[in-house]
Amino acid sequence: MEADIKACFDRISHEWLLTHIPLPKPVLTQWLKSGYMSKEARYETEDGTPQGGVISPILCNMALDGLEELVVPASRSRGRSKLHVIRYADDFIITGKNPAVLEHEVRPQVERFLAQRGLQLSTEKTRISHIGQGFNFLGFHYRKYRGTLLVQPQDGKTRELLEKVRGVLKKYRGIPFHALLAKLNAVIRGWAYAYRHVVAKERLSYVDDRIYPLVKKWLQQEHRSKTWAWIRKRYRGRFKGRIEYGCYYPTASGMKLIRLFKAGDLPIRYHSKIRSGANPYDLADKDYFEARARKQRMNARRDRRFLNSSSYEKLAA
User: Please, which residues bridge with residue 198 across strands?
Assistant: First the structure.
């Protein structure tokens, strides 16, 4: 069951928060009743939490605490032990073996639980689907295919990235090419690192293929009086038999090379789930977490060496 709370941060009950959240009530009241400004006018806040405030996700998590205990133990007492709740802030899913149990028993419990907090499920976005059909959660698409669980970027996230890249190319006209590459690299690298822990190799390579002609079009518009041969010689080079965009630019320490970040070059590092019951504050688990941290640092060094080893065999300065 993919659950979506309707306007969670806008409608959460102040009365419930002030009664149940273990915080100093004067401080909590100031946060909740601070109001908001719109078009030079101040409006009172009768419900909801501060939009964009650091306290909002904390209050939301504390308000939804107890959802797991509501669903899972009750199901186990009835012999249905395959009900599980996975929650992140106001987004959560509930998995189970029987869709009828999710629809007719679990969902009413969740609706009553939320109603006490002034919240309700969105009827349009809350739905029950089979793992074989797949579902979306936190920007990822989960689907079980031939007995194997595949986690991929959610449909539409690639399109959002390409739209963002087009926005950067449209916004920054007339700037040096190395400055444009720095801005594009920040966007592409952030997106690629976000999805490098799942099955996304084909999607990363697809992004590179779509960005290449967009950069070409930008260069042609910036150098309308030049031929493509002149542009190619100045802004492209060959690396291990592959043509890439890049250029040199002056720095305090001399000329430096920057090239367009290739998302497909980023090695896939699947997430290693933390051992159940492990506690980072328990000395008995100290060796486990130290070994886990060493492995993560080793992978990070390997990735840096791989990405930093890129240098052009031939590129005009």
Answer: none
